[in-house]
Amino acid sequence: AGRFAGKSVLVTGAGSGIGRATARLFASEGAKVLAVDVTDGVEETAAGHDGIFAMRGDAGSEADVTAMIAAAIEKQGGIDVIFANAGISGGLPGILDQSVEDWQALLQVNLIGPFLAIKHGAKAMLDAGKPGAIVCTASVAGLRAGAGGPAYSASKAGVINLVQTAAQQLSGSGIRVNAVCPGLIETGMTQPFYDLARAKGKGDQLGMLNPLKRGGEPIEIATAVAFLASDEASYVNGHALVVDAGLSSS
Ligand code: NAD
């Protein structure tokens, strides 16, 4: 039972934070989930959760992405949903301090990663004649300056444009491509900021920048991703869904 009963799902960056919460939500609603990460956190994501299978892989590597999709098809009988979520933050450096290598390493995961997931995921869906849904993780950092370092923000702005272009180019296929733009969520990525703020006795102020006056939980992004991936969102395409408690609009 559940919205994803019998569906085959691939989640990247599933060893922590938003990816872990989303993999578990999909599985709890009946999906078979291939959870992929570069770290052993992915085995922890799967442990004790029926329907989640752990796999190591690099979301920024074309060989690894094709291997993930092949594994999902082989182990789970197809590929219906892809959540291209893996991302790295690169800290908060100034534009004068970043190297070309910093940019390339970050773009490889944050922007080329979603491109590879869309390219090979859509190909597999077209081959099978079964159009599915692809969701990519962007960020409020991709909507306006100031929420991340220069390469990070540019990568996330790129993801928002990429899902629009992909939706357009896959026109007529039935495949839907969307993005989610999280605000500040407490995960491995933001832990250093939370730790620093708490050490200064200002931990409760981190979420105060938004109208709901609190930080978000990974499950609050997972529920939005599940909506975009579900048949309930059958007419939502090329869209970037902002889930940030009003941060970017206030
Ligand atoms: P996280 O660090 O807790 O999780 C990210 C996971 O991605 C980690 O387990 C990491 O090992 C994995 N990963 C990194 N590079 C990878 C690669 N090349 N291949 C496979 N896996 C890889 O952070 P999170 O907050 O859950 O991040 C998930 C996504 O959400 C990222 O794309 C991030 O940019 C985005 N995001 C996070 C926030 C936030 O406030 N936490 C806000 C906006 C967007």
TrEMBL record:
The EC number(s) this enzyme carries: 1.-.-.-
Database matches in InterPro entries: NAD(P)-bd_dom_sf, Sc_DH/Rdtase_CS, SDR_fam
Family per similarity comment: Belongs to the short-chain dehydrogenases/reductases (SDR) family.
MF GO annotations: oxidoreductase activity
Magnesium found in the keyword field: no
Organism in which the protein naturally occurs: Sphingomonas oryzagri
Keyword tags: Oxidoreductase
Keyword Oxidoreductase: yes
Protein name, UniProt field: SDR family oxidoreductase
